[in-house]
Each structure stands twice: as C-alpha cells, then as structure tokens.
Hints:
By secondary structure, the chain is α+β, with helices and mostly antiparallel strands. It has five helices and eleven strands; from the N terminus they run ααβββββββαββββαα.
Amino acid sequence: MKFLLFFLSSTCLVRQAVQFEGFQCTSQHVQEAVTTISACAPREVVIQLPWPNNTDIQQMTPSHVIVQRCTGGCSPLNPSCLPSQTRMKKIPVIVAKCGIKLGICDKECSSIELEEHTACKCACALTADDCGEHHMFSKSECACKCTNLQDKRRCLESGKQWDETSCRCTCPNIHCSQPGEVMDISSCKCVEQTHIQTSRTLLNMSSEQLLSLEILIIIFLISTVTGK
Length: 228
C-alpha cells in the first residue's frame, strides 16, 4: 500500500474539469480518495411501492419504504453491482377505497412483498443474448460491439456519425430551420418534404415496378426525340 501511494503521488495528476482545478497528488490526498470509495454492497435505499392492481384504491400508506439494494462502485471489467443473494420482505400497508360520496373511504389492511438484496457482486450485466444482429458480445469490455466494421469506417469517412447501438450510419444533429424541410438520411442534408416522399416511394417499389417505370421513361424520351 505504501508503494502504491508513493507511485500515485509521484506520477498522478488529477484530470482537469470545468468546476475543478488540477493539482499534483499528495500521499494524503490519494489515501483519502482510496478510503472514500463506496464499494458494491447492500445499502438502504428509498423506493416507491408499486400501486395495487385494484382500481378502487385511491390511497395507500406508506407510499415509500426503505429496503436493502445493491449499489456501489465496481471495476471496468465488471462494472455492474448486482445481487448475488436476495430475500422477499413483506411490507404492511393500509389502503383506502373511496366511494362516490366525498369523504367516505373504507380502509383495509394488506401487505406488499418486495425483493431485498442481502449480498452483492460485481459482474457484467450484459450477455450475448442482449446483443443485436450486427453485434458481438465482448466479455473483456462488457459491451456489445458492432461487427460491420467496414460500414463503420465508410460512415466516419463520409463525415457522418456511427450509432453503436444500432450499428448504423446516422446524420449529425442538424436542425432544419426552413419551413417544409426535413433531414434526408441518405445525404444528411435538409431537403423539401416532397423529395423525401419521392425517394421513399422509389425505395418501396419492387423490381418489377421499377422496371416498368424505366420502360415508361424510355418510351417518353424516345417519343420526345422523335417528335422533334
């Protein structure tokens, strides 16, 4: 521990941010920072009780309770604080069923069961099943990584933005200020709404419909040339 504190104090420099001033780390500062780490463990948290399915209930006491839930910091490889052991806690409640007449309510006693965490662990909350079609689960990074890397490279080279969630190329956050203009995803430019509708109509057409359209265009062009 002494070696770690010495190493950190001699090499560490706090990252600067807008609301903080960076300064050279001291042994005391590093020790205080390390000892104030809130590790993953069950802690008391306030949660709102789920409302009963009975639609006749207008009031419930209590509405919020304190239970033990896993919370705290973990490592980058296992970033999520998850429960490893749980138990059910029964919460006594009083509910009020109010009739049509104002001020007349029938009180009933009941209970609601809540899950309480008794032990915690640091782990990756994601699995391969959580990843999409174009994703691959990376256990070392605890993340779903896009597999279509060539599409990502072409997207970034074209000046667009890459969405890691959908593994698709998207447009930068540009607001179209002119009335009647919308964002064209293919060009990432603001165009008139009619142009977008025409493009979508062509994209939704089948190959036979597109062939028929091409034939009509060719016949029109031929008739125009011969007419001259």
